[in-house]
Amino acid sequence: MIPPLSFPCTGAAPFLPMSRAEMEFLGWDQCDVVLVTGDAYVDHPSFGMAIVGRLLESQGFRVGIIAQPDWSGPEPFRALGRPRLFFGVTAGNMDSMVNRYTSDRRLRSDDSYTPGGEGGKRPDRAVIVYAQRCREAFKDVPVVLGGIEASLRRIAHFDIWSEKLRRSVLMDSKADLLVFGNAERAIVDIARRAAEGQAPKAMHDIRGTVFVRDAVPADWRVMDASDIDHAQPALKGERVVVRLPSFEQVQADPVLYAQASRVLHQESNPLNARPLVQRHGDKDVWVSEPPIPLTTPELDGVYDLPYARAPHPSYGDAKIPAWEMIRFSINIVRGCFGGCSFCSITEHEGRIIQSRSEASILREIEEIRDKTKGFTGTISDLGGPTANMWRLGCREPEVQKVCRRLSCVYPDICKTLGTDHDPLIRLYRAARGVKGVKRVNIGSGVRYDLAVTSPPYVEELVRHHVGGYLKIAPEHTEDGPLAKMMKPGIGSYERFKEMFERAAAKAGKKLYLIPYFIAAHPGTSDQDMLNLALWLKRNGFRLDQVQTFLPTPMSLATAMYHSGRDPIRPVRRAGEEVFSGKGLRQRRLHKAFLRWHDPENWPILREALQKMGRADLIGPGNHQLVPRGGMPPSSNPRHTTRGNRR
Predict the structure, then answer these.
(1) Which end of the chain is more exposed for a tag (fewer CB within 10 A), N or C?
(2) What is the pTM of this model?
(3) What are the beta bridge partners of residue 618?
């Protein structure tokens, strides 16, 4: 039985200290834990280091923060002195490589998590670099990794930036322990045990952690999933560990990489998942079972901690773009059961939805009203990974205990999934009723295949919570790519569009949907992209900003991209081969189809259409895609989409 997460200590620092002077002001001579992060320090529950720091503070620990240190040497990592228990290292709210480079591997010029939006304030592969500098600063202090970069690199993974397989980040960083997912329980347990004298390296029974061993203990049984040609029967009972193909095997054989990806995702339900082990040379990387989701009271406790709800004063008047974007928004939910193959949310937060209580959410609205500078009465978002999964989940606990589905909504909505949106409607109404609140917007993406099950929700959303535009993500129009994405067919989008427009007319509002699409996703052919471009033109969409697929570590789609196999289904050497556009020109072409109206894309589109035998689509007609000469094709777009979610 896992004890509930509690918050026993009430004393709180105005901000967690970032300097010796602040420590002295608080009467501290030493920090228990020093958190090193690639983000600027914003004391708000949308920033991971603030949650971890305030949580440990609530347990009676003294926590300091080193934010965006100069990594050229160890001295900045000594700024707060030697931590008594351990360094906690995170790249920040984003993977440092995703933060630093575009999907075409071009260097980004800015960083939303840095004062002034300045780029270059964190190293590439920040978790590894920071861990090494912590070791140089204080050789004997344990290092614990966490955050999304560590989560998504916990086993051997394909790295698009170096075009090769890399080892578990725990091995490359030489850290003592890695925590994955939303690790509140794990980090509290680690700190308590460390305070009692136990070394983090020796903590081998904490859920949501990764550690290194020499071999599997003798009292464990091993279920070998590394041989796809001779599958071993499933082992049942306690103390069973699943062996993934080793680092050396997946490095040499992309098909085995797809197998490792499939097994990892099948072992993601914390109610039935078994630990995993993957050999790296002469060591085993042991991945414990995923963390048990927080209950609503526990999640409320995390969000009710005494955050200052502002950037650290040391930044002065500098604007931190990520903070400016979320300062009037509220996270009401964690997790996502959509299971989109290109998305990392499930791998990090899990499929089981964790919802805050209505009372906790309303308290945070009041906190924003009373404490956040610049509040004028508009809440910018009540959401999370998805806008409309609050309080949704499996209605059958016994089914959920044994379920190994990768998605609760693909290929169809599971019959045991509760989709009642009435509680969310009541929450929206209660939020609008808070004194001082003039408007509540919904900025998170709406899962439209769920929304169509509740016409009253769509009407409530449209009438009260959409200004001019609502973003949704069909991602594609063609069945082939959508199947590899694990997304619903375009018919689901059309049904939602019809409901949305009917509700807008009823409310007397002129509103638009902004659909988002991905170019060059695994399983997407040139013909698929042409069909999508023609659909966009027929429907009057001229996309401003679009996104090419980015193979992020550990996603199912990345396994498809690297291996040419589909890990959504059992992996076979003679199985279906999945095409992925990998060359720069191929990816540029797929992106050009999304922006068919841009004159800069017409030459590459003309060439592609001729090669595809579709020269009939070159010309001035409404049914044609690009002109022969320099004039834009005839078209009467209803609107141009704006913004970019990625």
Answers:
(1) N
(2) 0.95
(3) 626
